[in-house]
Amino acid sequence: MPVIAFIVIYYVQFSQYDMGGFVEYLFGFSILTKVLSLCVLPNLGVFFLFIRRNYLLSARGILLATIIVGIGVFIVKFALQ
Q1: Residue 15 burial (C-beta neighbours within 10 Å; 0-12, 13-18, 19+)
Q2: pLDDT tens-digit map of 33-81
Q3: For residues 48 and 56, is the Cβ–Cβ distance under 8 A?
Q4: Over the stretch 13-29, which tens digit does the pLDDT of each residue have?
Q5: Helix (H) or strand (E) holding 6
Q6: pLDDT at 30 over 90
Q7: Contact 63, 25 (CB under 8 A)
Q8: Is the model more confident about 30 or about 71?
C-alpha cells in the first residue's frame, strides 16, 4: 500500500516531473520523510479491514510492515540532517 500511495501522490500532484525528478524534488525540499509518512496511512484502512474480517495474521503482517516503514522513515529523517 505505501508504494501504491507513493505512485498516486506522484500522479496526482507531481505528474509534470518524471519519477527521478520527483524524487530529486523530494530530496531537494527535504519533504521525503513527510511524503513517506503519508504513504503509510492507507495501511491503516487495510489493517482495520483485516481485523474486521478476522484475518489476524494478515493484520499482524500489515502492522509489522507499517512499523518497518516507520523505522525506515525515522532513519532517513536523521540520516539526511
Answers
A1: exposed
A2: 999 999 999 999 999 999 999 999 999 999 999 999 999 999 988 887 6
A3: no
A4: 888 989 999 989 988 88
A5: helix 2-13
A6: no
A7: no
A8: 71
C-alpha cell at 81: 540532517
Cell numbers 474480517 correspond to: 53
Please give the sequence-ordered ranges of beta strands (E in DSSP) within the chain, or none if there are none. Answer: none
Packing angle of the helix pair 56-79, 41-52 (nearest 10 deg): 170
The set of residues, in sequence order, having a beta carbon less than 8 Å from that of 63 and lying 6+ positions away, is 47
Specify the pLDDT at position 81: 64
**Are the C-beta atoms of residues 51 and 59 closer than 8 Å to each other?**
yes
CA nearest to 63, candidates 42, 76, 49, 44: 44
Contact 32, 80 (CB under 8 A): yes
